[in-house]
Specification:
GO molecular function, one term: ATP binding
Family: Belongs to the LamB/PxpA family.
Function: Catalyzes the cleavage of 5-oxoproline to form L-glutamate coupled to the hydrolysis of ATP to ADP and inorganic phosphate.
Number of strands: 9
Number of domains: 1
CATH superfamily: Glycoside hydrolase/deacetylase
Largest sheet: 7 strands, parallel
Strand content: 15-25%
Order of helices and strands: EHEHEHEHHEHEHEEEH
Subunit structure: Forms a complex composed of PxpA, PxpB and PxpC.
EC number: 3.5.2.9
CATH topology: TIM Barrel
CATH architecture: Alpha-Beta Barrel
Strand order of the largest sheet: 4-3-2-1-9-6-5
Length: 254
């Protein structure tokens, strides 16, 4: 079985990016933007209400404070400040999740913060510290969603937080199992058929073709579909259908 997650609520005011309603009919986990790279209070409330109505797990998609750069610009934030910002974002989303009759069930960093915590122990520790600080309003420790082998998952596991490894069908991988940075050519896989094939390969065989053609192991419990990809909802439906045809059950992680 595998979880299917998507980045949702990535709009601000009158500007919208993700087709939240359509994607919430497909995915089992929703990574909801918490206002720092995208999202605003009304968007957060609306997405939480829709997710709760459809039985979709709500996750806090935390990021650097970078609305102008959509959270994809590298930033140097002091660890204590970053930990507070992570706790703040989780707490804000929890208000709307609770109001919808649900709760924040996990945390996933976004963009530059996600990539930074693959190798940077200090920033990974700050994110985990923020997750721990938010635990008091989240009924205990929250699982952390991240890249297999990352410092983030290692630090989280080291302090007793549950961890969930995820993979990306629409992102290129290096031979080392990390994501090819978006600034490099062909970092994003655009061909729908290739994305679907990669999704099934990850879920069924725990492997994916890296840049250069080498097949590498990718053990993941959750598969991400980027909500800002054109036609994301239709692609997600096709992925889910292909997974079912391959005998793979799509189900939220425990």
């Amino acid at each position: 079985m595998i979880d299917l997650n998507a980045d949702l609520g990535e709009g601000f005011g009158r500007w919208t990016l993700t087709d939240d309603e359509a994607l919430l009919s497909v995915v089992t986990s929703a990574n909801v933007a918490c206002g720092f790279h995208a999202g605003d209070p009304s968007t957060m409330r609306r997405v939480c209400a829709l997710a709760a109505e459809r039985g979709v797990r709500i996750g806090a998609q935390v990021s650097y404070h970078d609305l102008a750069g959509f959270g994809r610009r590298a930033m140097d934030v002091p660890p204590e400040e970053l930990a507070d910002e992570i706790a703040y974002q989780i707490g804000a989303l929890q208000v709307f999740a609770r109001a919808a009759g649900s709760r924040v069930s996990y945390v996933k960093p976004h963009g530059a913060l996600y990539l930074r915590t693959v190798d940077d122990s200090e920033q990974a520790e700050a994110v985990v510290a923020g997750v721990l600080r938010a635990g008091a309003v989240c009924d205990g420790p929250l699982p952390v969603l991240g890249l297999p082998g990352s410092r983030l998952l290692a630090v989280a596991e080291g302090v007793g937080l549950p961890v969930v490894a995820e993979a990306f069908a629409d992102r290129a991988y290096t031979r080392a199992g990390t994501l090819v940075p978006r600034r490099e050519p062909d970092a994003v896989v655009h061909d729908p058929e290739s994305v679907i094939t990669r999704a099934v390969g990850i879920a069924r065989d725990a492997a994916v073709e890296a840049a250069g053609g080498e097949r590498i192991p990718v053990a993941a419990r959750s598969l991400c579909v980027h909500g800002d990809t054109p036609g994301a909802a239709q692609l997600a439906w096709r992925i889910r259908g292909a997974l079912a045809s391959a005998g793979i059950r799509v189900e939220a992680f425990a």
